[in-house]
Amino acid sequence: MSKRDYYEVLGVSKASSEKEIKKAYKKLAMKYHPDKNPDDAQAEESFKEVKEAYEILTNTEKRQEYDRFGHAAFDNSGFGQRQRQSGFSGSGFEDMFGGGFRQQSQGFGGFEDIFAQSRGGGRTRPRKGQDFEFNLSVDFVDAVKGAEKIIELPINGQQKKINVKIPEGIKDGEKIRFSGKGGLSANGGPSGDLLIIINIRSHPVLKRDENNLIYTSHIDMVTAALGGEVEVNVFDSRFKLKVPVGTQSGRKFKVSGKGVTSRKGVTGDLLVVIQVDTPTQLTEQQKALLEQLKATFDGNK
Question: Which residues form the J domain (predicted)?
């Protein structure tokens, strides 16, 4: 298969300066580098092609020969063969990034290290240690009101006790971060962080909708029809709620400011949802009374 024009490979024109060629090469080299495209054979071939074009067009003598004779200028020079044998070592990438590429060329090395070495005169930039994540299950009440838990976790080969302060109003899936409590750095950098992911257990009668609390109150059909009162118990708050005559199942009553206070200090409302329960086990007397009631409805038709 015939080779593409070197200028076309780098996306530059024949009139481009060496500075423009280097700029174009750097952009493409970063795009196709094997560290950023693992197990991508096409990217690897593109990287080779880009590097070959760069080494020709930034060499004054070779560029002049290429401009006069094209690829034929190097048919007998063994250039293409030498490139295949040498892999990715050579002047192009090293010259641009401070020599780090040759050290990393076997197995392609760490792409981040290449640029770190060019900035630091051959020294690898210190890297932050690995972040550790652990799940912590907490009760619904603890998530809403806040709590403090002492847990034991395996960190850096040791069992460590961590005092976890669960903030008031934390949501399911939110994380509590302990900076510098994670994995150790391999080369003198800062330690990683410890992240505690909060999993909230369900509550038998309460649910949360953003900052609102939803409380389901069960009443019988007589109370729903004639009206009355229901007792609402939410955490440490207990009060009676008036149920109007003819209340339907699913009706909501809002109690302002009795919801969840978020981590940002915003407090929602308490929504009391009425659930009218239909009796399933009636006595004979109750059945007779309901039949009488039903007869009065039928007489109104």
Answer: 5-70
What pLDDT, on a 0 to 100 scale, did the predictor assign at position 301? 56
Q: How confident is the model at residue 87 (pLDDT cuts 50, 70, 90)?
A: very low
Kindly compute the dihedral angle of the four CA atoms of residues 204, 208, 214, 218, in this order, to the nearest 10 degrees: -20
Q: How far apart are the C-alpha atoms of 184 and 41, rounded to whole Å? A: 34
The topology (CATH level 3) of 206-298 is HSP40/DNAj peptide-binding domain (2.60.260)
Of the candidates 239, 237, 217, 219, the residue with the CA atom closest to the CA atom of residue 228 = 219
Q: Residue 225 is which amino acid?
A: A
Strands 237-243 and 228-234, by their bridges, are antiparallel
What pLDDT shows up at residue 79?
A: 45
C-alpha–C-alpha distance, residues 292 and 301, integer Å: 15
- Helix/strand/coil for 109: coil
CA distances in angstroms from 256 to 33, 211, 213, 214, listed in the order given: 59, 12, 11, 12
Residue range 121-142: mean pLDDT, rounded? 85
- Asked if 132 and 194 touch (Cβ cutoff 8 Å), the reply is yes
Fold: same for 132-200 and 206-298: yes
For 15-25, the pLDDT digits (tens) are 889 999 999 99
The residue written with tokens 């950098």 in the block is 189
Domain 6-120 carries which CATH code? 1.10.287.110
3-class DSSP state for residue 214?
strand
Q: What is the pLDDT of residue 274?
A: 93
- Say which residue the tokens 């002492």 belong to: 150
pLDDT of res. 299:
60
